[in-house]
Threonylcarbamoyl-AMP synthase (Prosthecobacter fluviatilis), 342 residues
Amino acid sequence: VTAVLPTDQPPLMHQAVDEAVRLLKEGEVVALPTETVYGLAANALDAAAVAKIFEAKERPSFDPLIVHLASKDQIDLVADVPPEISATLKKMVERFWPGPLTILLPKKPIVPDLVTAGLPTVAVRVSSNPIFRRVITGLGKPLAAPSANRFGSISPTSASAVQAELDGRIHLIVDAGACMFGLESTIIKIEPGTPKMFIDIVRPGPITPEDLKAYGKVRQATRTVVDEATAAPGQLASHYAPKTPLRLLERPEDFIPEEGKRYALMSYRGEEKDGYLNLCDWEEVMMLSPGNGKLPEAAVRFFYVLRALDKLGVDEIIAEPLHEHGMGIAMMDKLRRASRRV
Ligand code: TXA
Ligand code: MG
């Protein structure tokens, strides 16, 4: 059985943290909140513990994991920072850590090959979630943690979503409510260049090209290299897919509903002027940003809405396009992947 421990009162929070640390010390896996999505964590330096992550998620071993550090001082424990990029790296971690930015760096031998899927690089970040920070500090070891969903499925942004994905497969879920960002961290690689460094975005996320441009020339690696397994092997085209077929409609006029089929709409704001509301007799319409029509609100609700629409058992989920700036870049990337079922 999977225990779900609450954290909404101080004594309960301490109990949950202590139990998580105890299990992690025993080489078990634990689902923990981060500021992006819930992660399934294990001691990153213990290959046998890390193997349990792959097992619980049914994740193929070619898909490497992110290593979470307790603080930026721990980079040198797991990575060899090339001198050419060290000044830029230092500035970037000062600005973005703790927070939703993951950086690819050459790995040190102490990191098991299972964590990096045999790649010469390791993905590192420092989470800002206070519960996560307590656990990682209590353990005193880096934590490998992918999103706490089954492989290829929708990332969880609540403890109940983790439960829906992994119930019975893990001992503990620490429930700390909703995730602050709702989308997985931005993954980058810093490449030496003159006069500017290159900042290659391997996975778009909460830290946007706009945020990154002060540190180098930003390149959107995703679009071009996504299908080449080398860039971010987990960035498979079919990722983030709900079980229900999903179609991203770039324009409302492209939709011709089929007789007798049931459709649900993922709408940005549910506004008639966008032309999507009247296309058919929707089984359900869910809005990403009903409150203020802003991308960060949409991001927080994104996986929740996708998960809810997936449960309806409709024939197809239709998604309205989002503005492709800020966090809209990451959501459009995920919608494109979800709509391409390969
Ligand atoms: O926000 C996040 O990043 C969440 C929370 C839990 O920290 N974690 C997360 O992990 O999204 P995961 O495993 O679901 O996605 C990590 C991505 C995968 O697509 C993986 O292929 C890529 O990071 N990755 C990890 N190590 C890599 C490496 N050395 N080179 C290229 N891509 C790597
Ligand atoms: Mg994931």
In short: The first helix runs from residue 10 to 25. The chain has two domains: 3-175, 246-339.
